[in-house]
Amino acid sequence: MSIMSAIALYGVIWFMTMFLVLPFRMTTQGEAGEVVPGTPSSAPSDAQMMRKVKLVTFIATPAFLVIAGIILSEVITYEMLEQLTGRG
């Protein structure tokens, strides 16, 4: 795996994890009772993005290491995936 492939893989894993973590512990402005004029009541009142970025990085890094280890050790190869899907 090249360095660019590793960066792309980490980016995909990081953003997938971010989309999974974003809705956790979200309080809407409607629930908080503090709707800012011009925004919908479903908008977050305090997104706590820095906390979520740290959590996502904490989750995505070990996931990347496991997936990269599987790829580099060739436990699963491209040829295996071709045979599994019937292509090739």
What does this structure look like?
This protein has 88 residues and is mostly helical. It has one domain (3-85). The chain contains 4 helices and no strands. Helix 1 (3-21) packs across helix 3 (49-73). It is elongated. The protein starts with a helix and ends with a helix. The relative contact order is 0.14. The mean pLDDT is 91.
Short structural description:
The chain is 64% helix and 0% strand.
Number of strands: 0
**Radius of gyration, CA atoms, in whole angstroms:** 19 Å
What is the number of helices? 4
Strand content: under 5%
Poorly predicted tracts of residues = none
Which secondary structure elements does this structure contain, and how are they paired or packed?
Blueprint: H1 3-21, H2 29-32, H3 49-73, H4 78-85
Helix pairs in contact: 1-3
Task: List the keywords.
88 residues, mainly alpha, 4 helices, transmembrane helix
